[in-house]
Amino acid sequence: MAKPVSIEVWNPNGKYRVVSTKSMPGTRWINLLIEQDCRVEICTQKKTILSVEDIIALIGDKCDGVIGQLTEDWGETLFSALSRAGGKAFSNMAVGYNNVDVNAANKYGVAVGNTPGVLTETTAELAASLSLAAARRIVEADEFMRAGLYDGWLPHLFVGNLLKGQTVGVIGAGRIGSAYARMMIEGFKMNLIYYDLYQSTRLEKFVTAYGEFLKANGEQPVTWRRAATMDEVLREADVISLHPILDKTTYHLINKDSLATMKKEAILVNCSRGPVVDEVALVEHLKHNPMFRVGLDVFEEEPYMKPGLSDMKNAIVVPHIASASKWTREGMATLAALNVLGKIKGYPVWSDPNRVEPFLNGNVPPPAACPSIVNAKVLSLPVSKL
Ligand SMILES: NC(=O)c1ccc[n+]([C@@H]2O[C@H](COP(=O)([O-])OP(=O)(O)OC[C@H]3O[C@@H](n4cnc5c(N)ncnc54)[C@H](O)[C@@H]3O)[C@@H](O)[C@H]2O)c1
Fold first, then answer.
1. Which of 164, 323, 358, 365 suits 181 as a labelling partner, its CA being 20 to 30 A distant?
2. Which residue intervals of 136-278 are DSSP H helices?
3. If pLDDT is split at 50, 70 and 90, which confidence band does 3 have?
4. 269 CB within 6 A, ligand 1
5. CATH 3.40.50.720 domain position(s) in the chain
6. pTM over 0.85
């Protein structure tokens, strides 16, 4: 028998039982569920990462839907437990769902939701922050200052890289990669080289138009190029930011060989998923290339860092906070709750998961639809006409 896990209960007499494995920001998501006759149970166990056994205990004998987190292992065991409890709805509170075995969910007919769109700009802003912090050595300089080592201005003190006119390389130019590219191009007048399996026409059009605007104002225009291989990006870019999904094709995309391809003074930023980078190879590269700098939001085996990484002055490390703005985290909670609610109520799936604004306006009721269900096609779920 699984050990009981502590919970907080909202609307105890609600008809549908919805479990959230974590407390999530804001209260709108709770209210939206309660208004539709859900009993909401939120796990309050003081444990950052819940085990499969903990979640089985939370699911219990009767559960209509679960809102889970990217730190949890949603596979065969949990989807079969949810299905046995009568549940057909699950949503990750994240856009990435590499922690979810979607085939297992399909097998049990469980819809898998995610939360795209709402975290695009916030995540891109953190990638931009890490790029700037690495280029201008902000963390090192802050530590130096606090240690009382500053004894006056010096020509060589914390000299870093100027971004203007340099080349930004984006690997994975989807929603977040494109938003990041635009920030670096518009904000710092960098040129773009990108690699993606698909052409990013909107991004290309943006850079072309911005380049023309700069030219018309007597400034050097910015340029773009879609690289045929990732190596071209690695060779040519001064700042490289990683934004692909994590799957078999992107596991250790950045390894010993790809690091050796980059410029000695390049900056590498990772706000995608830790295993996209071979972290052991990265530590070695940082040791031997003191001018190479890295900004990391994600790690290969979270919450741990590979040995030696925390000693590297040329690495900036933050604890997976790329989506951590109030608006975004509250929006993610809302989208995750509405994915689960929509499936329970038999609503159709929203036609465009990139256009989730109608679900985020707290002043009006959200559309009667699931904002984003990744296995909607496989499960033949109806699509909203709204
Ligand atoms: N650090 C964080 O807190 C945080 C927050 C949000 C998202 N993320 C991560 O960012 C990822 C991207 O999010 P998004 O909303 O931009 O997704 P998206 O699907 O819009 O973009 C992903 C892009 O990667 C491309 N891609 C896939 N395989 C590739 C490959 N082998 N090489 C090059 N490109 C490839 C896709 O074609 C797509 O354009 C998520 O899957 C998630 O893992 C992290």
1. 358
2. 138-146, 175-188, 201-216, 230-236, 256-261
3. confident
4. no
5. 7-118+324-360, 120-317
6. yes
Q: How many angstroms does the Cα of residue 176 sit away from the middle of ligand 1?
A: 7
> Exposed (0-12), middle (13-18) or buried (19+): which is 364, by Cβ within 10 Å?
exposed
Query: Which of 243, 325, 332 to probe ligand 1 with, by most ligand atoms within 8 A of CB?
Result: 243
Expressed in angstroms and rounded, the spacing between residue 368 Cα and the centre of ligand 1 is 28
DSSP-derived secondary structure letter, 178: H
CATH number listed for the domain at residues 120-317: 3.40.50.720
Q: Is 235 annotated as catalytic?
A: no
pLDDT at position 184 is 98
Average pLDDT of the chain? 97
Residue 302 appears among annotated catalytic residues:
yes
Residue ranges with strand state E in 55-95: 65-68, 89-92
Report whether CATH 3.60.40.10 matches the domain 7-118+324-360: no
Amino acid at 239: V
Q: What is the dihedral of CA 154, 155, 159, 165, to 10 degrees?
A: 150
